[in-house]
Structures are given as structure tokens and as C-alpha cells.
Design brief:
This is UDP-N-acetylglucosamine 2-epimerase. One of its GO terms (molecular function) is hydrolase activity, acting on glycosyl bonds. This protein is 40% helix and 15% strand. It is of the alpha/beta class. The chain has 2 domains: 209 residues, Rossmann fold, CATH 3.40.50; 148 residues, Rossmann fold, CATH 3.40.50. The chain starts with a strand and ends in a 16-residue tail after the last helix.
Length: 380
């Protein structure tokens, strides 16, 4: 029987990370694949990246606009649940696949749990900071199947009371792409995006939704430190969380500078090539603590957004204050490449995911969940 699998994506990064799994399903004749694209994919400010998804020859792509600029996170969540619920009622999928800790994942898990549809959550059981971590754990509790990056994440899910048979370590799907030989060359990337720098760092700074009162001060310190360093930077726009306009308002002042190139977003594979060749990455994006260590690229992780996440030798943590950021830039500039870290997988997530499908694991997992008390002495 041909089963329908829906992948939910709300950002260009999410799409890039789960694309190996989407491709795996599309290549399997036993399954029908549908992409539910929403969130930042539908906003002009971020390049209307739904067009990119459509150009990748996927069989079925459904676009749903779940927000306008400046809507609050609770409003966006409500919008997404309503739209996805109607979509699910029409498509009647057998499996919903969601990733990470964005609102789109929470909406997908909520609808699946209440509609009696199996939900598979990729990269649950991880820690970060702010409200994102709460969202991630809430998504895990609503999901029926956990496809995690490593044994530490699996352990946290057991500590949350998740049953052992629901947890499967497949690694992070983005590492399949990161270690691929099919990434574009740096010359291709520089030509496509008109990047004039031979040497550059990458900057990504997102709003911390639990620290909005100090956000303007944090952003000012960040930008002042980048300018004072007299280095070249490729800057990626912040995400669409509440507070993003505060960052936008300050980034606009960098447009005329010859040391900065600003982009709403970059194609995932092209971004990975830029990352692999960067001197370092600085900001508070998960890229600095997850993807950068895979290439051994040094990173400066600012503030609390990725707190407790990432322990590789390539990661420097600093406070969101001018003096601290200045010192971190000096230190990271002296580091050079670090040993690669493959703590989140070695590039075989696609195969592991396909193996689960072929063993029909998603079709046999119970929709009735039970809290499993954590028993550390029993080997769990």
C-alpha cells in the first residue's frame, strides 16, 4: 500500500537540512511525498524561498502563508495550526515529519497528535536556550517517533519519559549534505551572490525572545564590534521571530559599507560552501554550534540563545557586550582551523531513515503514548 508522508518546513535552513530525507522518500516508489512549505518561505523579506523549493522538481509542494511581518509568535502558531489542520484533512497523510524547534514543528506535532496521525520529530532531545528549548521538548512530547542526532539526545528523551522503542539515532540529516562531494565551489558561490571578498567571516544574529528588553543594546554591541574589527563579513538576515525588526533597523546601516554583504538568506548548499571556507562565524545562530564544528570552522557564540548547546573546541562563548565580543573576535582570529567534530552523525542519516521506512517502523509505532519512568540503573 502506498503511504503518504508530509514534510513540514518553515525556513530555508530547515528545508536544506531535511532535503536528504525528502529525496529519499521521493526515490522510493512505495511512498508519496508532499512538502508543506510555510513560514519564512512565503515572505518577500526572506527572498520568497518557496520558489527555490518548487525549482527542485519535487512532486508535490503545498504553500501556506501563515503570517505577515510583525505578527506575534502565538498568532503565527494559531495560524499554522489552522492551515495545516485543513491541509491534513484534505491530504490524509500516514506520517508527518517535522524538524527542530520552530513554530511550524510545534504546529505540525499538535495537529498530528490530535488528528491521530503518526508524527516523526527530527533532532529532538537537544538543549539550547530561551523559549526554543521549551518548544523542542513540547514537540517531542507530542510526537510518536524520535529521529535523534546522537546518544545524548536519546538519553534526554528517555529522561522526559519517552519509551525506548520510539527513539532512533539517525544523526543530523544536514551532515549528509555537508559531507557531500556535490557542493558548489567557492568561486561559484562568490559569482552567484556577488561576494567580492577573498577572506571573510559570517555573521548571523537572531532575536532572543526572552530578552527583548535588552535586544537593542545587544545588537548595537554586536554590530559595533564587527565594524571595529575591520574584517569582511557576509551577514545573513535574522529569522522572523519577534524582535527581528530591531535587528533589521540596525543592519540597514551596513549596506553602504564595502566590508559587509547582506543577504535575506542563501541556498543551503551554497551557504555550506561559504561556511566551510569562512575564517569564522559569529552571532547566536545554531550554525555556529552545530554545522561549523563539522568543518572545524571556529565560531563565536554570543549570549544565551544557544546556551548549553555545543561543546566543540572550535566554539568560543562570550557575553552580548561590546568588550566581550571584541575580545572574542581577537581570539577567534588567531585560532585557525580546528579538528572536525562529528558528534551529530557522519553523513548516513538518509540511509538510516530509509531503513526505518523499509522496516515499517513508522507504521507500527503506537499512537497511544505512556510515560516511561527513567531508570538509569537499568542501562537506560
Amino acid at each position: 500500500m502506498k503511504r503518504t508522508i508530509v514534510f513540514v518546513t518553515g525556513t530555508r535552513a530547515d528545508y536544506g537540512k531535511i532535503k536528504p530525507l525528502i529525496r529519499a522518500v521521493e526515490e522510493e516508489t512505495d511512498h508519496a511525498c508532499v512538502i508543506f512549505a510555510t513560514g519564512m518561505h512565503t515572505l518577500d523579506r526572506y527572498g520568497f524561498t518557496i520558489d527555490e523549493i518548487r525549482k527542485n522538481d519535487h512532486r508535490r509542494v503545498h504553500m501556506y502563508t501563515n503570517q505577515v511581518l510583525e505578527e506575534t509568535m502565538d498568532q503565527i502558531l494559531g495560524n499554522t495550526i489552522g492551515g495545516f489542520s485543513r491541509f491534513v484533512h484534505d491530504v490524509k497523510p500516514d506520517l508527518i515529519v517535522i524538524h527542530g524547534d520552530r513554530l511550524e514543528a510545534l504546529a505540525g506535532a499538535s495537529v498530528g497528535a490530535l488528528a491521530g496521525i503518526t508524527v516523526a520529530h527530527i533532532e529532538g532531545g537537544e538543549v539550547s536556550g530561551t523559549v526554543d528549548e521549551s518548544i523542542r521538548h513540547a514537540v517531542s512530547k507530542l510526537s510518536h517517533l524520535h529521529l535523534v542526532a546522537n546518544s545524548e539526545a536519546a538519553l534526554r528523551l528517555r529522561q522526559l519519559g519517552e519509551e525506548e522503542e520510539r527513539i532512533h539515532i539517525i544523526g543530523s540529516p544536514e551532515i549528509d549534505v555537508m559531507l557531500s562531494s556535490d557542493l558548489p565551489s567557492l568561486d561559484e558561490v562568490r559569482h552567484r551572490y556577488e561576494i567580492p571578498f577573498d577572506h571573510y567571516a559570517i555573521g548571523i544574529f537572531h532575536p532572543v525572545t526572552t530578552e527583548l528588553g535588552s535586544l537593542a543594546k545587544q545588537v548595537e554591541a554586536y554590530i559595533e564590534a564587527l565594524v571595529a574589527s575591520k574584517k569582511n563579513y557576509v551577514i545573513i538576515y535574522p529569522n522572523n521571530d519577534v524582535g527581528s525588526s530591531v535587528i533589521f533597523d540596525r543592519l540597514i546601516g551596513l549596506i553602504s559599507s564595502q566590508s559587509f554583504k547582506l543577504y535575506p538568506s542563501l541556498r543551503f548548499e551554497y551557504f555550506l560552501t561559504l561556511l566551510r571556507n569562512a575564517q569564522f562565524i559569529i552571532g547566536n545562530s545554531s550554525v555556529g554550534v552545530r554545522e561549523a564544528p563539522v568543518y572545524g570552522v571556529p565560531s563565536v557564540d554570543i549570549g544565551s540563545r544557544q546556551r548549553h548547546r555545543g561543546t566543540a573546541a572550535s566554539i568560543l562563548k562570550c557575553k552580548p557586550e561590546r568588550d566581550s565580543i571584541d575580545a572574542a573576535i581577537i581570539q577567534v582570529s588567531r585560532m585557525g582551523r580546528c579538528p572536525p567534530s562529528l558528534s551529530n552523525g557522519s553523513g548516513h542519516s538518509r540511509d538510516s531513515f530509509l531503513n526505518l521506512l523499509r522496516r515499517e517502523v513508522p507504521w507500527h509505532v503506537s499512537l497511544q503514548k505512556h510515560f516511561q519512568p527513567y531508570q538509569p540503573d537499568s542501562g537506560q
